[in-house]
Amino acid sequence: MDVMGDKATLFETGRFVQPSSREDTETPDETGEIADEAAEELRQRLAAEAGDVEAMSVLGAMLLRRGDLDGAEPHLRAATAAGDRAAANNLGVLLHQRGYADEAAGWWRIAAVAGSTAAAHALGRHHRERGDEPAAEYWLRQSAEQGHTLGAYALADLLEHRADPGAEQWMRVAAERGHREAAYRLARALDRKAAQEADGDNGVQAPEEAEQWYRQAAARGHRRAALHLGTILERRGELKEAGRWYLTSAKDGEARAACALGFLLRDAGDTESAAVWWLRAAQDGDGNAANALGALHAERGETQTAERWYRAAMDAGDVNGAYNLGLLCAEQGRTPQAEQWYRRAAYAGHREAANALAILLLRGGDETGAEPWFSKAAEAGSVDAAFNLGILHAGRGEEQAALRWYERAAAAGHTEAALQVGMARLRDGDEQEAERHLRCAAGGGSAEAAYRLATVLDARRPPEPAHELGEPVHRRSECEEWYERAASQGHRRAQVRVGMLAAARGDVVEAARWYREAAEAGSRNGAFNLGLLLAREGSEPEAAVWWTRAADAGHGRAALRLALVYARRGELAEGQRWADRAVSLGPASVAERAERLRDALRQELSA
């Protein structure tokens, strides 16, 4: 029986694999009885002493596997001398273990020439370690082409190192033969290819074939493959299966999987279990998990523990740790320490830390020091920093520079920046571009943008068509929808406008509701219009209350209405006081009427 050892397997796992052919080393069933193994060894030893070459080879392999190099060597040499190629390969493994690499290579060459694929693989690995890549490729190709799985993988690894297009073919061959690392690396290569074809988009989905190879490698116990498979499934929303693969990978010691599992559990509301896995990952040096633990303790008010974990994240090389320390210090009012940590993170390239540092400096009055950090953050891709630069330039009156930064932030989806661009385009008379940006901002949740968009659409709205009997027909328009969206978000002017639209169609209850909501939020127009509505409904005393609120806030027409109310009641002095107030508040038409009323009341009082 020709028994061959495998160098790569021996050195990577510390044990032989028992194949079905004579080219690979046998491994006894580990669940069998020790006595059976001893009996087998005795049988082989007796046969070897009787001159059986095959028994010499098998006995040498058994002793080599056990680590008895001194006992294995004479048997392997004897079998090799008798022409056993498996013994030649195993003798090479033994000599390599003893440190005689060149002598080992000689025996591997003999076995490889005799047709041993395992020896060809070992010889190829030997030449690669020596830097002789042409010789390494020759022997690895010999091994791979004759069906040796490890030879195919080693050849693929060599070709990939040289960026040879043939690498994928041999990686696929090894993967198809069950090599889990080959399956994982093939999946990674397919992932990279898909990302390149998508212009490096980080959100690109892994191709179906890559997922299949990740799954195959993960099923064979590859922990990084299980991690990647979990990530793919999580992106797809298959959280339960993703969690299973994260758990498998985490149990095998993959810290990133433990961290990812923690986030899944947190999102499911199980923060206690999440903390357990984050702790495990953080103790294994995962900075992201340490940051997550820091944030968890910070939320609980345990700032000292949070700071300890943020420092652990920083020590693990995660620059987010320094940024989070800055945030923690800023929340506690420890501004000098916050600046120190922000600087540390910013100098390490953390763009949000650079933006936060700039804000801190700006609040301290150091505009000169703030601007370069805003610029650095914006150039690194911080949308908030680009918007802040726009504010900075606008504050100096540098409208064009401000607009450029607003446009940059708006293009990246910043809602308030889109609003600023829309308003700038309105001022320039470019209504089409203004509408486009206002729609973006309004869609992003900006109440002001929704109101501005509604006013643009309102100005274009044709007059209401008349009913055939001469009564206007109300049709709900898009501008009303935007007014209502802004109003529902608390925009006071939009609330007043929605109230006016409701009043125009005769819905007094709806109008009063919106006027009241605006007035209670501080809108003087809302208070004035609510007063008008109440007065028309016969509730003048309550109307006077709202007019008083509006007039106190500077509403001239409300002051004039109050002057008229008090004049009708015969309270001439109070009427004159409110008429004086209306004259001072204006506008001109109101001031003119108020002045006439004031003079009339003065004459009445002096008569």
Please give a structural write-up:
It is a single chain. With 607 residues, the chain is mainly α. Helix content is 76%, strand content 0%. The protein has 35 helices and no strands. The protein has helices at 7-13, 34-49, 53-66, 69-81, 85-98, 101-113, 117-129, 133-145, 149-161, 167-176, 180-197, 208-219, 223-235, 239-251, 255-267, 271-283, 287-299, 303-315, 320-331, 335-347, 351-363, 367-379, 383-395, 399-411, 415-428, 431-443, 447-460, 478-488, 492-504, 508-520, 524-536, 540-552, 556-569, 572-585, 588-606. Helix 10 (167-176) crosses helix 11 (180-197) and helix 19 (320-331) packs antiparallel against helix 20.
Features:
elongated; 35 helices; about 600 residues; disordered N terminus; about 75% helix; single chain; mainly alpha
Distance between the termini: 137 Å
Helix tally equals 35
Output the radius of gyration: 41 Å
- Principal-axis shape: elongated
Uncertain segments: 1-31, 466-471
Layout of secondary structure:
Blueprint: H1 7-13, H2 34-49, H3 53-66, H4 69-81, H5 85-98, H6 101-113, H7 117-129, H8 133-145, H9 149-161, H10 167-176, H11 180-197, H12 208-219, H13 223-235, H14 239-251, H15 255-267, H16 271-283, H17 287-299, H18 303-315, H19 320-331, H20 335-347, H21 351-363, H22 367-379, H23 383-395, H24 399-411, H25 415-428, H26 431-443, H27 447-460, H28 478-488, H29 492-504, H30 508-520, H31 524-536, H32 540-552, H33 556-569, H34 572-585, H35 588-606
Helix pairs in contact: 2-3, 3-4, 3-5, 4-5, 5-6, 6-7, 7-8, 7-9, 8-9, 9-10, 10-11, 11-12, 12-13, 13-14, 14-15, 15-16, 16-17, 17-18, 17-19, 18-19, 19-20, 20-21, 21-22, 22-23, 23-24, 24-25, 25-26, 26-27, 27-28, 28-29, 29-30, 30-31, 31-32, 32-33, 33-34, 33-35, 34-35
